[in-house]
Amino acid sequence: MTKPRKKQSVTDQLDAWATHFLAQQEEVLAKHMAKLEAIDIETRLPNNDPEYLKAIEARDKTRAEISNKVDTVHIIPDNGKTHLGVTLTNPRHHADAREVGRLMAEHFEAKLIAHEDPADKTIAPDHEQKTTPKHEFGREKRSLPR
Description:
The protein is mainly α.
């Protein structure tokens, strides 16, 4: 004959279940911690991926191009707003200015806004040009009969 079991109290049953549950959770957490530690070690190792290295070299090349052409950085407060300005080593070279602006916009992932020089007399032909009146076209005023 088998001996009859003693009935466990509800508190003892809950304690046993909680102990079992926590032991399982400790195992799961230990596995996750091991994975996280492996990922942490992997991310701290140097990355020798060829595409990553090419991207780093391209970024450094762009930075060097910009730094070779920039002379001064200006901080300009204007009615509560702050603007940054850049002076180039050759401030009259407009092509360099556009190129440096494009490179900086790409580097900072910002939009580029180019303003025209209102005092420039050599503006591109797509701007409005002064036309001569028709009665003066092709003749000088002095050559007209009086």
